[in-house]
What does this fold into?
Amino acid sequence: MGESTAIPLAEAKPGQFFRIHRLSLDGTMRRRLLDLGFIPGAEVKVLQKSPLGDPMAFLVANTTIALRKEESAQIYGEIIGERGDHHG
Amino acid sequence: MADYRIALAGNPNTGKSTLFNALTGLRQHTGNWPGKTVIHAEGEYDFDGDTYTVIDLPGTYSLYSNSADEEVARDYIIFEKPDVTVVVLDATALERNMNLALQVLEMTGKVILCLNLMDEAERKGIRVDVDALAAKLGVPVVPTTARDGVGLKDLQKTIQRMVRGEIITRPLQVRYNEEIEKNVAAMEPSIRSIYGEKLPARWVALRLLDGDDSLLKALKERWLERKEVPVHGRGA
Ligand SMILES: Nc1nc2c(ncn2[C@@H]2O[C@H](COP(=O)(O)OP(=O)(O)OP(=O)(O)O)[C@@H](O)[C@H]2O)c(=O)[nH]1
Ligand SMILES: [Mg+2]
It folds into this structure.
């Protein structure tokens, strides 16, 4: 799937699996996301949204991590499946 | 009869405090790190007549995102130079845990990897080739289930052998792209001339190339302004 079809992780729905293409931020915020496991190529499962949609919880590299929307909106990639599909 | 310092580092929730408690029992004291609102927990145990002081570092995914927790852990490992740094790993999430482990291996070779939560890994059908991991990373790997006290004797024995200089490590050094390696090579001699053997030159060069302002600040505080390095060991 090409770059043009990439969507922000923030728009993925609970139960969906998402593959990261790129992070569109720099500096300390980028470093932090990489350290948390949000690496290009990584597969992320959306676990849940809090009532106001922020923060969101994700399963990444076998650990649950919550991100604020300002962060998950900067992570671009594609939906690769839904709950019930087999992954990993 | 000697006194050694052992630091416990690791990702959050990997069982560092459980291990710390199992090792030190009631011989603990807690407070804050100097100038930080980060909990400092220190305890001790005896093994074969020697005393080991254990420092339970804050759990972090990295040492470079510049949170107070990460600065505490980084500064302890790089400036206070514990006799051994034990990196506690979650055996069920090794890929994630390698980030911090590889960072520590760039800082020091006096590292033991404690592969914890082995019971959980087994339950999930995850098998880890401990010998292959140790060979690849160049440091000892000790499997444990800290919650049940499994593997602690092995860990203590391995720590003892390391402080006695009986273990030769070859910590895996990540190779970066040509441009980075060229710059590192260019910087290393001047870093070495400033810090000698006090700091690992390759690591400092990599941090400077990464624009690590937090480390620059810590270096200035510790050396350029001749500020005393906080005395480790027990409080008054
Ligand atoms: N099943 C199992 N659980 C463990 C083991 N070691 C620790 N735990 C549990 O894992 C949880 C986290 O343990 P802690 O010791 O608090 O982890 P920590 O690394 O100190 O966590 P932070 O201080 O937040 O970084 C606790 O519920 C422990 O009981 C183990 O070997 N097996
Ligand atoms: Mg703890």
Residues 3-81 of chain A form a domain with the SH3 type barrels. fold (CATH 2.30.30.90). Residues B 10, 12-18, 59, 116-117, 119-120, 145-147 surround guanosine-5'-triphosphate (ligand 1) (CB under 6 Å).
